[in-house]
Amino acid sequence: EPEVTQTPSHQVTQMGQEVILRCVPISNHLYFYWYRQILGQKVEFLVSFYNNEISEKSEIFDDQFSVERPDGSNFTLKIRSTKLEDSAMYFCASSETGLGDETQYFGPGTRLLVL
Amino acid sequence: SQQGEEDPQALSIQEGENATMNCSYKTSINNLQWYRQNSGRGLVHLILIRSNEREKHSGRLRVTLDTSKKSSSLLITASRAADTASYFCATDGNFGNEKLTFGTGTRLTIIP
Description:
The complex is a heterodimer.
Chain A: E1 5-7, E2 10-13, E3 19-24, E4 31-37, E5 43-50, E6 53-57, E7 65-68, E8 75-79, E9 88-95, E10 105-106, E11 110-114
Parallel strand pairs in A: 2-11
Antiparallel strand pairs in A: 1-3, 3-8, 4-5, 4-9, 5-6, 7-8, 9-10, 9-11
Chain B: E1 5-7, E2 10-14, E3 19-24, E4 31-37, E5 43-50, E6 55-58, E7 61-66, E8 71-76, E9 85-91, E10 101-102, E11 106-111
Parallel strand pairs in B: 2-11
Antiparallel strand pairs in B: 1-3, 3-8, 4-5, 4-9, 6-7, 7-8, 9-10, 9-11
């Protein structure tokens, strides 16, 4: 069964460093998302992406964050200068078009720890 | 209450019993999805119910949706130890393929 994959599974970085989290969405999906979950808290929406542009972003998704679909398969989240409070589990998700299954399928997550 | 708020926050039952979790939300939705999360792991999609549906089944799962009360319930029948996890409801907006707003989750523990 197709699934969303994410790399790395764990990332430890120093405050102020840039990190890039990678995701490979399900191949025929057109909508892509990033969410995060701070330990013990709710899953929070960061950004959605469709047709090579951001369709919606949350207040969390400030200028330090960016997303890119550099090729036909990868979808990346970059944090330019990490802060301690960026420590969280980051989930990528994808879904098909609105004409079909709108289920959002999530990847296994990348656990980011900022020291 | 917040969009997508589940209750109870925690539930412990004996293996074999049924588990019911509830979710309430505030705004209009296109669909509501239930997810499971094992401790520290990814989100596994369980079931999606559309706003024009009232009930849906998948294996041992039964989901109901009452849009007039803005609430949903997830019933797991004949629970197993492997069902131990956190369960979240997530709602989208009016148009589909939009961001999901997650609830706070119910931590379910199945006692063997």
